[in-house]
Amino acid sequence: MTSTQVAREPLLQRAKRKVERFAGPAGIFFKGFLKHPAMVGAIVPSSNRTIERVLSVVDWEECRLFVEYGPGVGTFCRPVLEKLRRDGRLIVIDTNPDFIAYLQKTIGDSRFIAVHGSAADVEEIVKAHGFDHADYVLSGLPFSNLPEGVGPAIMGATHRVLRPGGAFLVYQYTARARDLMGQFFRRIDKGFEPVNIPPCVISWGWKE
User: Quick check: helix, strand or coil at residue 111?
Assistant: First the structure.
């Protein structure tokens, strides 16, 4: 970028670039929260203990496709990729183009696929990438804040896209999402992780 272009660049854009450069992932995450607080649901990423607790039910040897809704800056992406088998795939779906662009620039793993879109379209997205089903789906979306009808649409699509024996891994900051999960998943295991900001309610919905 030339000095003339820099001079013409709006002040807000220059400030945004500085925040991204100096604050790193935390700055990107916080910016995403400010732009779409109802979709991000928190102002800081999940703790390492939350990540381990949420992923503790996954049978990695049998996991060929792992899907995540609302990956943010990749807090779960990297731990998932560390555990995922070499021929596995991780598809992440987010409506925030800033998060998708950041992940595409910072995660250089051939098993990783970042999609700008809606979790309600997970069935079409999974099929478009050559899969019939997902083994596990992870979500930190704030279901209680989603627009009317979107939460049930995501839950229904998730249940359909999972293989029998697969699971929907949901971490929230209230237990209200469990009522919605119960409409689609007969078996829901429950967990809680206090070492998180805020403390995290965990639900594992199994497709029987």
Answer: coil
